[in-house]
Write a structure and sequence with these properties.
This protein has 8 helices and no strands. It has helices at residues 2-21, 31-34, 42-52, 62-71, 77-89, 95-107, 112-124, 141-148. Helix 3 packs across helix 4 (62-71), helix 5 crosses helix 6 and helix 5 (77-89) packs parallel to helix 7 (112-124). This is Coenzyme Q (Ubiquinone) biosynthesis protein Coq4.
Length: 150
């Protein structure tokens, strides 16, 4: 039941977040084109992630799925919250991030150990959350992970 409520909160907040807070341009690429990138590349990794999870690219939110690929984070509700903890540890600060962390911690108090582990993982990595991943699609996932200690 709590997963349902968290997902509803996300769905209600996603459109205003995309429209009013995300200033970046959409990537204008679809997941079928991502599968044309070399197999070890971030582009191919993103395409594979989208297909495996039955997702489509969300305009202006493409970076979110890239973070999933780079950090090997799953897509369950608590893992999504954990990814926000990771990003906080990596230096990202935004109203949306704090809202997810606050609501997630309230809804999932038994996952606090996992959240702290994710925060610590993010702290150990070099800051990468702010990168323009659209320009890195041909780069190897492994190279990016190694370079930023992800």
């Amino acid at each position: 039941m709590r997963d349902y409520w968290i997902e509803k909160l996300y769905e209600c907040s996603k459109k205003p977040y995309q429209k009013y807070f995300k200033k970046n341009e959409p990537w204008n690429i679809d997941k079928t084109k991502l599968m044309d990138y070399p197999e070890e590349s971030l582009g191919f990794g993103l395409g594979s992630f989208l297909y495996q999870n039955h997702f489509d690219i969300q305009e202006k939110l493409e970076d979110h799925d890239v973070i999933h690929v780079l950090t090997n984070t799953g897509v369950s509700v608590y893992e999504e919250i954990g990814m926000q903890y990771y990003l906080l540890g990596n230096g990202k600060k935004s109203l949306y991030l704090f809202m997810v962390i606050l609501s997630g911690t309230i809804f999932y108090p038994k996952r606090i150990k996992y959240f702290i582990q994710q925060y610590q993982r993010g702290k150990k990595a070099h800051a990468f959350y702010y990168l323009d991943f659209s320009k890195m699609l041909f780069m190897s996932v492994q190279t990016i992970q190694q370079s930023f200690k992800i």
